Amino acid sequence: xxxxxxxxxxxxxxxxxxxxxxxxxxxxxxxxxxxxxxxxxxxxxxxxxxxxxxxxxxxxxxxxxxxxxxxxxxxxxxxxxxxxxxxx
Length: 88
Fold this sequence. Notes:
Blueprint: H1 9-25, E1 27-29, H2 30-37, H3 41-53, E2 57-62, E3 72-76, H4 80-85
Antiparallel strand pairs: 1-3, 2-3
Helix pairs in contact: 1-3, 2-3
């Protein structure tokens, strides 16, 4: 059967989980998304990249901490109603 456009149901579920974490937190690192969702680091990296390329997320600076490297922080780049209405 030919594949329809759009992400697979599993990918869409991952995208929804990432967006829910972002919307709840405002600005968030990929590590924090992993803690909140239980998704793998690779899945989060792939989903964040895809959402950024599609214009849903944007990098909004770096985390600040006392230990370890800083991490990119991500935030929502649109109106929350847009995500709910999106066929993505």
